[in-house]
Design goal:
The protein is an alpha+beta fold. The chain has three domains: 88 residues, Ribosomal Protein S5, domain 2; 36 residues, no CATH class; 143 residues. Helices cover 60% and strands 12% of the residues. Strands 1-2-4-3 form a four-stranded mixed sheet. Helix 1 links the parallel strand 3 and strand 4. Helix 4 packs antiparallel against helix 6. The chain is elongated. It starts with a strand and ends with a helix.
Length: 293
């Protein structure tokens, strides 16, 4: 599910700001950007993230403003000299030496002259706790936004669930008429085929053929199992709080399996129409479920 969470923390001159952006993904993928050394410590940040998020592509931006220390404030003298020489040389070459002074006033802002200190290695011991707390706060705000989206998604899932349930009920109602329709069609075909030859067909032969068809096209078990899967699906959506996404994926897979079997065995045009409608709705559910935590 998509979402955004942002939090800030501060302690003894150290300022931390963390943004977390999430988009849909069947799996968890974390990318960390921002102040050094945190992009290199993606695994440590992911351990914190996994306490809150199981699925999604997360972009985590960590910004840490540290108090400056004397050892960190260094000018790149080589770059500074090069810029000064080039600016003065160009102004003298153009015969505009007076232009050099205002241009030199901004030389410290040029790239590489006064680089920001780069921190390598592990985060300082006094820094990691505030970063972890700030990340937790941003993840809690992300959770709040994702829960709102999850409630809307649950309504959509239950709406599709009801539609499949309605189609299955229509199949149940139509099933008793399937055998009678087949018997009538078979009788008419046989009479038409043998009418010119003036040959009669024994009723027991028709009965045997109808019985064989009934055995091949019996979908009671598939209907019962699909109904059970629908009940499990509804219970997971309404009651499950501990990572329902994977469970829903499994149930939807089993629902698709039973629907395919039902459609192939039924051999009835009306039931086939209901099966097509169920398959189309299952596809909508499958796309939604991939984004469920």
């Amino acid at each position: 599910m998509t979402g955004f969470g942002e939090a800030r923390g501060q302690i003894e001159g150290l300022s931390v700001a963390i943004e977390v952006r999430a988009v849909n993904n069947r799996y968890l993928k974390v990318t960390v950007r921002g102040s050094e050394p945190y992009p290199m410590f993606e695994a440590e940040l992911e351990k914190v993230i996994r306490r809150h998020v199981r699925r999604g592509t997360l972009l985590v931006h960590v910004r840490v403003d540290r108090p400056s220390q004397a050892k960190d404030l260094k000018l790149n003298t080589t770059a500074l000299k090069t810029y000064l020489q080039q600016i003065r040389g160009i102004c003298n070459e153009l015969g505009q030496a007076d232009y050099a002074a205002p241009l030199l006033a901004g030389v410290l802002d040029l790239p590489g002259v006064a680089p920001e200190p780069v921190h390598f290695g592990a985060p300082p011991e006094d820094e990691w706790p505030i970063v972890e707390r700030t990340l937790e706060d941003s993840l809690r705000r992300l959770d709040a936004m994702r829960k709102d989206e999850g409630q809307a998604m649950a309504k959509d899932l239950l709406h599709n669930h009801r539609h499949i349930k309605d189609q299955l009920e229509l199949i149940r109602r139509h099933m008793p008429t399937v055998m009678g329709n087949y018997r009538q069609r078979l009788t008419e075909r046989v009479k038409q085929a043998l009418g010119d030859a003036n040959v009669a067909v024994a009723p027991e032969h028709l009965i045997r053929e109808v019985a064989l068809y009934a055995d091949r096209s019996d979908v009671d078990e598939e209907v019962t199992r699909l109904s059970a899967h629908l009940e499990s699906f509804e219970n997971i959506v309404r009651l499950e709080e501990d990572g329902p996404g994977r469970k829903l994926e499994f149930v939807v897979q089993e629902m698709g399996r039973e629907t395919n079997t039902l459609g192939s065995k039924a051999g009835d045009v009306t039931i086939s129409r209901y099966v097509v409608e169920i398959k189309a709705t299952l596809e909508k559910i499958r796309e939604l479920v991939q984004n469920v935590e």
